[in-house]
Amino acid sequence: MTTLSSGFARARRWLREHPLAFDATLAFCTLVAMICGSFTDPGDGHGRPAFGARTPELFSVLLMTLAAAALVLRRRRPMQVLAVTAALAAVEYVLMDPPAPVVMSTVIALYTVASRTDRPTTWRVGLLTMGGLTAAAMVFGSTPWYSQENFGVFAWTGLASAAGDAVRSRRAFVDAIRERAERAERTREEEARRRVAEERLRIARDLHDVVAHHIALVNVQAGVAAHVMDKRPDQAKEALAHVRDASRSALNELRVTVGLLRQQGDPEAPTEPAPGLAVLGELVATFRNAGLPVEVACADRDRLPAAVDLAAYRVIQEALTNVRKHAGAGAQAEVSVVRVGATAEVTVLDNGRGSAGRSPGAAPGGGAGPDGGGAGDGDGPAGGGHGLVGMRERVTALGGALTAGPRYGGGFRVHAILPVEARTGEPDRPGTAGGTGLCR
Asked: CB 3.0–4.6 Å: which of 57, 118, 239, 422 could bond 225 by disulfide?
C-alpha cells in the first residue's frame, strides 16, 4: 500500500514539473472519453442511454481528434483553445445528428480560461460560450429544444466556469496568505536588526562613558606619580594607588557591560548592579582624589527608574570627566540632582578656563566659546569625540533633553532633564529593581 501511494506521489510530482506532458495526457483521456460517448445513444424513449446503439461518423472522429489536440496548448493559449474547441463543437451540432460529445473539450477549455483570468472576463466568456452552444444544440438538433441533452450542455459549461473561478479565487487567497507571511517575516527580521543596532549603540555609549572616565583619571594620576616620584615618593605611592583603584573599577564596569554580549552557555556574567546615583559618592571621591574639588547638592531621596538612574549617573560621570580634562588647573565643579514634578534635573557646573577641546563644534549644542571654561567634549583636544553626543543620545532616548554650553562670566554648564517615567520600555536590570534613591 505504501509503495502504491509513493508511486502515485512521484507520478503527480513529475506531471506537475512537466505541465505539457500533463496536458497531453489530459487531451488523450478526453479523446477516449469523447469517442466512448459517441457510441452511446442519448435515450431509447424512456430516458435511458444505450451503449453501442450507434457508430460515430468519420467526420465526428476528426472533429473530436482536433478538439482533443487543441487541449495540449490550453495553458499557453487558453482563449485561442477555447475558441477552437467551441467552434468545433458548434460545427458538430450543426452538421451531425445525433452529435458526438465534442463539447467535452470545450468544457475543459472553459475551465482553464476561468481559472486563469479575472472574474469579469470569466462571466463574459462563460455566458457567451454557454449561450452559443446551447442555442446551437436547441436549434439544429433533432430532439426537442427542452430535451435534457440540450440543458446538459448549458449545465456543464456553467459548471466549468464556476469551478474555474473558484480555483482561481482559492489560488489568489493562498498567494495572499503566503505574501503576508513573507512580509511579516521580513518585518520581524527588520525589527530584530533595529533592536540589535539600538543595543549596540547603547553598549557603545556605556563603553565610552566607562573608558573615558577611568582612563582620564588614570592618566592624571599617572602624571602626578611621575612628577613627584623622585622628591615625594609617598605622594607617588598614593597616586599609584588611585591608578590601581581606577583601573580596577574600569575593568569591573567593562566586565559588566561586555557580559551583556555573552551567548547562552558562556560563563555566567557578573550580577553586580549597574552604577547609579546610589554610588555617586564613590564617583565624586575618585575625582576629588584626582585633584578636582566637587560639591554635591541633592534636594531629596526619591527613587528613580533604573534607566533614568543610570542615565543621570552617566551624565554626571561624563561631565566631570570633561571638567577634569579640559577645565584647567584650579577648576571646581558643582553637581546637583533635584526632582521637579515628573522630571529629575541633573546639573554640572564648573568655573574652569581651560582651552583644550573647546571648539564650538565639539558636539551639537554642547561646545563652548573660544574663551573656554568648563567641560568640553571628553574625547580629545580636537573636539571631535562623542562625549556630549553620547550624553545627548542617552538622555533623548529616555524622552528628556540636554543642554551644554559656556556660562556667563566663564565656566561651563551641563543640564539634563530626565522624565521619571522612561520611554524606553526596558526592564529593570538585575539589582536595580524598583529604582534607586535620588542621591546617597
From this structure: 239
